[in-house]
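Retro notes, item 3 of 5
We never archived the inputs for the flavin-adenine dinucleotide complex last cycle. Fixing that now. Sequence and ligand:
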Amino acid sequence: MKLNSKTNNWINWSGSVKCNPREILMPESQQEIISIIQNCMVQKSSIRVVGSGHSFTELVVTSGTLVSLDLLKGITSDIKADNVATVFAGTKLQWLGKKLLELNLAQENLGDIDVQSLAGAISTGTHGTGIKLGSVSTQIKEITLLTANADVIVCSESINSDIFKAAQISLGTLGIITEIKLQLLPAYKLKYVKGKTTLDECLYNIENYKTENRNFEFYWFPNTNIVQTKSMNITDEKIMKRSFFKYFNDIILENVVFKLLSELCRIFPFLCKAVSKISAAAISTGVDINFSAKIYATPRFVKFQEMEYSFPANNVVAILNEIRECINTSYFNVHFPIEVRFVKADNIYLSPAFQRESVYIAIHMYKGMEYKKYFEAIENIFKKYDGRPHWGKIHTRTAKDFSQLYPMWNKFQDIRMQLDPEGLFMNDYLKKIMIQ
Ligand SMILES: Cc1cc2nc3c(=O)[nH]c(=O)nc-3n(C[C@H](O)[C@H](O)[C@H](O)COP(=O)(O)OP(=O)(O)OC[C@H]3O[C@@H](n4cnc5c(N)ncnc54)[C@H](O)[C@@H]3O)c2cc1C
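Structure as it came back at the time:
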């Protein structure tokens, strides 16, 4: 087992969450994790597990033991004929994507970055876009979980099925996930088309956009009527070479130039409106064709705070119109685009897409800029539409709200109490969102 001894300070990706754990441990085997759990149980010291630290909320904060599974990574066994692979929980999605491609396999869908750990991604319900595609958690066939009693529980749709539905999205409250069996697809290529249109046109034709493309999302630039559309569909066409144009767009425009403009907005917030208009005017259109793992994710060098909620998909037009009205009348200094994605309904107890075909709407604010008033105003709209917040992103909701938003809330809490009666895996933030 390695001790991360350089420093005991921990900080998340956005820099908004910090903690000083008593120790940061990096076990290399299931047996070492069992020893950690047993020691913490004896010492009555809490444990939190961290993936890549890309959540915006205080999920992994602890003054006790912080466990990183960075050394527990890779694919554990031969791939089965039905394209099911067992993956160690600490495996990073980017590594997994490359390895799977070598094996001529791929994940069904992914979000817009790939630096998360597999267990971290599934534990907060990380999703991509596509109305016929579920979140990453829906790709799971089986989970191996170490609980507070140091029991090893294997769960799936057929074994311990209630625990499985709870563990597919559990915020690390049921124990430490060590292995995940994933249902994969044969490797596939995606044709990725970036377009530009107006918000009005996009909302008018949203049913077509979302049903006629395998993956569809759009970004609306506040204080303009402009959106960038992104659609992806499976293709047999030849891979397109990485052109200078694409490099210029992904790295220079979307990161370097956007970072400079964002810094301008941080120093002179009144420039936000103009910067949003400049960014909208500079939207590029284009096509890219490549294997899926090389298409889904893009580099993100510009740091921000984010709030994202999920809603019944047919509310998308009404919600976007209310957000537009709110931004137009409240004069918020915001230049980051608003992201809109679609996700298939599922049956996972704590999934924001639980039993409803969903639209996810995300708002962002550049790191270092005041975001609370803007997020509060938009969250008030989100609340009106039965919004369920993304578990890894900023929100102000508590256990009382969740007990009304999630039909299987009590069932999840019963399972959590059964597996961790003494709250070994809890922290103050989790108490607020889990316990009424
Ligand atoms: C730039 C950026 C882009 C993003 N894009 C998307 C996106 O496209 N779609 C989307 O849905 N989300 C997105 N997110 C959110 C992100 O995917 C989630 O917050 C995700 O949980 C982060 O994964 P992580 O490995 O960093 O986990 P962490 O943030 O480190 O941990 C998340 C949770 O997982 C738990 N956990 C981690 N490992 C284990 C384990 N082995 N056993 C039990 N519990 C564990 C932790 O305790 C914690 O509760 C984005 C975030 C950022 C910063």
